[in-house]
Amino acid sequence: MPISTSVITGTVAHKHSSASAEGGYLDEGVTGITGGNVGEVLTATATDIPQWLTPAEAQGGWNVEGNDIATSFQSELAVSVTDQDVYQINYNVSDGGGDYNALVMRINDITTSTYKALLSQGVASGGSQGDPELTTQDKCMITGESIERQCNGTIYVYKGNSNFYSGVQGVNYINQGVQNSTSDPYNWQIGGGNNSTITGAITKLSLLFMKTTSSANENIEGSMRVNSLSYS
User: Fold this and answer.
1) Considering only CA atoms, which of 171, 207, 186 is closest in space to residue 68?
2) What confidence tens digit (pLDDT) does each residue in 67-94 have?
3) SS3 of residue 59 by DSSP
4) 65/52 Cα distance (integer angstroms)
């Protein structure tokens, strides 16, 4: 290319680090940019260095952690997750046919009596049905013990935040869902709670049907989907 400066005059030869075949794709040896995975987009980061990111990462939205789908009864639905700040669990599940079970959640397979929950229920036929669980349990309460058959909703799980004034506060969660049955199709379930002992990474989220008092397992079927996001 012609160049005219006080230092160099004339045509300066130049070349890429490696040749690109006629009609072929430019690869990282030619462009210096590594290839992305299927579905990723090339995105300028805060440091103006292009990176291959998922659409959710590029937009700062929810990332998909995974699904668990059971078309027949099994002991639990579970998804192993990466270390993030917030998780969203969408569920549509049914118990194994036994009466008076509760839908519960466990985090990182922890079964010690370190969970605390507060749960409330209501029914469409008039009046409200309270079901407080403000006690230490070995699982997170998502519904009351009288739940049966199908229920669905969304749970948000929040990792402990070391930026709080008093330090890491453990895991907190909130849930909103409904029960679907022939006798009471609009039984709503609202609750939340925490486990102050979980101050590190969340690695697994599980849904199970159990007795609230004995923790005896009932089978579960249906689907759960886990999404996540980070504040950074």
Assistant:
1) 207
2) 999 999 999 999 999 999 999 999 999 9
3) helix
4) 18
